[in-house]
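S., here's the first fold you wanted:
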Amino acid sequence: MKFTELKIIEQGQGKWIVTIDGAEWTETLKKAKNRVMTNLEVPGFRKGKIPASQAKKYVTPSKIYNEAYRMMVSPAFDFARSQDVKIEPMNSPEPVPAKVSEKELVLEFLFDLKPEIKLGDYKNIKTVKKEAIEVTNEEVEAVINQYCEQFIMEKPKAAGAKVESGDVVTFDFKGFMDGEAFKGGEAKGHKLIIGSNQFILGFEDSMIGLGLGEAKIDVTFPENYSPELANKPATFELNIIEIKSRELPKKDDELVKDLNLPNVQTYAQFEAKVKEDVLTQKTQNAKNEFVNELILEIIKNSTIELPKSAIENQAADLRKEFEAQIKQQGLDIKKYKKVTGLNDEQIKSELLADAKNKLKRYLVTTEIRSKEKFEVTEDAINAKFENLAAQFGIPAEQIKTMVNPEMLKSEIINDLLVDFLYSNNG
C-alpha cells in the first residue's frame, strides 16, 4: 500500500489517499472473485453448487471490484492511521473509491480539517476582575427556610379569609386573550404558594386579597415568554377552592434532630453548615462567571482558523437543538418566523455566529488542557464519588455503579481547568 495526504483549504477538508496495487491488489481481486462465486445465488441452483459456466454469466467485473473494495476499506484505513500523518481529521474520515481497475484501487478518506489555533496569553490577564464573595444573613435564612419546608404545617383558613403572601391556594383557572381561550392557559385544582413566583409576574400579586369563589385578574405576559404570548395582555378567570396558611417549624435543636444531617447536632452547627454551603455555591458560581468572561479575552488574544465545513456542521447541530426547543413551546420553524419576524437568513446568521463562538471556546479550553497536562488522580476520583454520595445520600460504592467513569474524569478535568484559570488570572 502507498499513502499520501492532501489539504483542500478552500473546502476546509483533507484527505488521506491509499493506493493498493501490484501483487497485493491482484491477490485481493482473486479473493473477491472467489467470495462472489461462493455467495452467488442463481435460480435453479443451490448456493455454492453453481457450475462455473453458469456462474461466469453472473460474476461481472463490477461485482468483483465492489467486493474487493469492501474487503480493503478497513485494512486501508488502518494503514493510513499507522502513518506519520501531518493532516489531522476533526471527524471520522469517510471512504470514497477514487479509482478501481484491474491494476489498482485508489481509496480516499475524506474528512473536515481540524481547526488550527495559536493560543494567546491565558495567564496573568488583569482585564477581567474578580468579585468579592460574601454571604448575607438573608441568604442563609432563605436556605434554612427551604429545609424547614420539609416539616411545614398547612392549616385551612376561615371561609371569609383573604389570600395573603405565603398562603397555599387551590384554584381553577382559565386564560383568555382577546376574548378567546388560549392553549395551555387552563387547569383544575391547581395548588400554588403565593409568592413562589411559579406564575408570570403580577399573577400571584393580583390574587392577594381575593377570597373563596370566582374572580378575574388581568396580567401581561413578559417579553421573554413563548413568542405567541410575549408582551400580550390576558384575563384569567379564577375559582378559588381553598386557602391555607403555612407555618414553618421552630428553628431550634429539635428541627436539626428531625433533619438528621451528618455531623450536625445543634442549630448553631446547622447555621454554620448552611453558611458554608452557600459560600461554596456562590464561590463556584463566581468562578464560573469569571472563567467564562476570561475565555472571551483569551479568544481575543488567540489566532483561530475555523474551516467553513466545521462551522456549518456545528451550526447544523445547533439548528436541531433550536428546533427541538421551539417544538417544546408548541411551535415549528414556520410559526416561529411568523411570530418573531425573523427570516431564514437571519436565523442562519445567528446560528453560524453561535457555532463559531462554541467552536472557539472548545478549541481554547482544549488547547489549555493540553498545554497544562491536567492529571486525574485516583484520590480526585474517589473524592468526587464521596461528594456525589453525600449529595444524594447513598453509599459511594453504589454511586460507582451508576456513574460513567469517563464522564466523571471529564468533569474533574473541567474543574481543574476552572480552578487553574481562576487562580492564575484577575
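And the second, which I think is the more interesting of the pair:
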Amino acid sequence: MTHQPAEETESGGVPPLEDFDPYNDAFRADPYPEYDRIRSLGGPVYWDYLDSYVVSTHADATAVLADSRMRLQPPDPVAELMATVVPESLRSMSRTLLFTDPPDHTRLRGLTRRPFASPRLGRVLADARELADAILAEALHRGHLEVVDELAFPVSLQAIGDLLGIPRADLPKLRDWGQAMSPAADIPAAPSSIDSAVAAYEAFDDYFAHLARARGENPGEDLFSSLVEAHQQGALSRSELHANAALVFISGHETLVAFTASAFLSFLRNPAQLDLLREHPDLAAAATEEVMRYESPLQLATAGGGRWTAEEVEIGGRTLPAGVRVLTFIGAANRDPAVYDSPDRFDITRPGARHLALGHGLHYCLGAALAKQQGTLLLEALAHWPVRLASEAVGAPEWLPLFMQRRLARLPVTVTPA
C-alpha cells in the first residue's frame, strides 16, 4: 500500500525526501548535516524508501507526538500484512506500551508506572551510584576505562534489574538477549537480525515464565512482582506480562548505556565543559538534559513503527492522508535552530532544554525520571572524579550500525590522576 505524495504546491503539498541514506558510515558518524537539510525542506516530507512521511522540526515533532489522531497501532490492512511477515513470537511485543494505544496503553501504563515513583527507586539509585563510584575508582587505579562495557552497562543493568526484580547474577544473559533484539527494532530491521531476535525473545519468555512462578509464590517489592499480581488478578495476560517485562528491561538500560557513552564523548570533545561541571557539580542535572538533547539516545520515536494517521491530518502546513506512517526524527528536532541557540554547540548551561529525547505527550517515556536521575548521578560522579581523560580511540568513534539508536559500540579512555 503506497501513498504517493502530492506534488508540492502553495496549498500544502508534501515534497519528497531525496538522496537520504541513513545507513552509511558518514551519516552514522555525524547525522546532523543531513538533519539540517531535511529541516530546511520545511514541514513533513515523503520518504519513498519506507513509504513514510518524515517530520524533523521541533514544532512538527511535538505536534505529531501529542496528536491523538496519530496512532501507534497500524491500520488493519497493514497489521494483517505485518502478521504474515513478523514471526509469531515477536508479535508479542505489539502488546507492550511501545506499540499500544488507549485504552490498552492506559491500562498497561497504570500497571507499570507505580514502582518508578516508589521509595524503592531511591535505594536503586543509591546502589547504582555506589557501583559507579567503585568502577571509577578501579579505573583510576588501572589507568584506563572502557566506558561502554565497564561502566555504562554494569550501572544501567544493575539499576533496571533491581527495579524490575531480576537477580543480579542473571543480568549478563538478559543483556545478551536484549542486545540480540535491538537490531530487529531498527528501521528497517536487518533480515539477518530476525532469527537472533526470535531466539532472544523466546529466551526472555521462558525466563519470565519461571520468574513469574517464583514471584507468585514469594512476591517482593519489585516491578515484576507487581506485574505478576496484576496477571493473577486478570488485569494482564501472560503474553503482556512477559513482553512488557522484556520491554522495561531492554529500554530501561539501553537509554542509559547510550547516554553514558555519549556524555563521556561529548566532554572529551568539549573539555572546557567538563572543567565547568567540575567547578559546579550542581550543573549535573542540566548537563544530563543537554547530553540527551545533543546526542539523543533514540533518533526516532517509537521503534520502527512510528505513528499512523487515523484520519487526514495537517502538520506544519502540509496535509497527510489517513492511514500512512509518520516517522519522527527526534535527533533532528533536538538540534532545531528555531528552538535552540547554536544547537550544534554542547552547552551544559543551556536554559530550558525542552528536548524530545524521552518522547512527548501520552507516550512520554515511563522511566524518564529514572533515566534522568541515573544520568545525573553518573555526571555527579564524573564531576568528583579527580582524573584527566583522553580518548584511546584511533580515528573516528565507532557507532553501532543502527539508525534508530545512536550509541557508541565502545569508548576506551586513558585515566590519569588530576
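Why I say that: Confidence is low (pLDDT under 50) at residues 4-12. The CA atoms of residues 116 and 270 lie 33 Å apart.

Talk tomorrow,
H.
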